[in-house]
Prior knowledge:
Layout: E1 6-13, E2 21-25, H1 33-46, E3 54-61, E4 88-90
Antiparallel strand pairs: 1-2, 1-3, 3-4
Amino acid sequence: MEPLVYIMAILGCGESDAPCREVTVAEARYESEADCLAATEAELMRRGDLLFPSVVAQCRPAGTRPQPLRGSDVALPAVGAAVHAPPRLASAEPPRERR
Length: 99
């Protein structure tokens, strides 16, 4: 039996019930789902130029299709916070306090 390889799909999500769509698949390959999940925050930060209300990373075995996800399924974290369970979300930099 061949070892599983995990990939990280980057999905762009709209608002409400609009379906998320796969934008790209990260080039890196991971030996475990845990390794993939550990890399999601850094990968999402590199994808800050994507023009979607939210951007989600899904780790899945190579060769499988993305899990269906809608914008309403993606709960945005507090600004600057990262969600630590799949799906992982990217958020904008937190606003700086004005003095």
